[in-house]
Amino acid sequence: MATPKLIILDFDGTLFNTQTSITSTIHKTFATLSPTHTPPLQSIQSQISKGTSITTTFRTLHPALSTQEIDSTWTPTYRALYAAHGQDLVTPYPGAEYLLRSLKERGIPTAIVTNKGVQAVRVALERNGLGGLVDRELVVGDSTVGWTRKPDAGSFWDVLVPALKRRGVDLDGGEGEGVLVVGDTESDVFFARNVGAGARVCWCLFGYGELEGLGVDFVVDSLRDVLGVVDR
User: Rounded to two decimals, what is the model's pTM?
Assistant: First the structure.
């Protein structure tokens, strides 16, 4: 592909290693709200590998919960516990700073689109010295106005496209042409397909998902390798 007009990065399992923090916080949430119902570790990891939202994860791990219970009690409890205990377990993957700094120096617009709560992403970036490397307006997650859960591409069309237009970057009418999505789960792949036929997918082998059966354009072993994809 030509030099991308926009690079969209996933967060969990792509920029940051968050598996321990997510697993630990899910366990803490169940211990707090339903101590007799402890989901197996394998079930939790299965949800993480699919890139599902925390709402979908709770619905799958505890089918007896209503949507109202999840939205009003479980998700807020999870996020409070994550902020108090989970952030200490979050670490950027090797090469994260190098990649973000290099893209910024090259002037390539870079966004983060995630099913995670956007505040948790911003805190993790700031805590690890990466906050200034991604435009705050281009960090999109749950609670961002206009955000939709991946693989729906609403976050692209309703948040990123207008934000980039304000910066003089026009992505309209290109069927995703010039967009490179970097991720590690099936939700990232299907998100790219929903952006448009012209969007390309770069799969991170070090992440949480299983590549088998998913058609992707590029595969990398590290975040530094993403620059090689950009330069092809």
Answer: 0.92
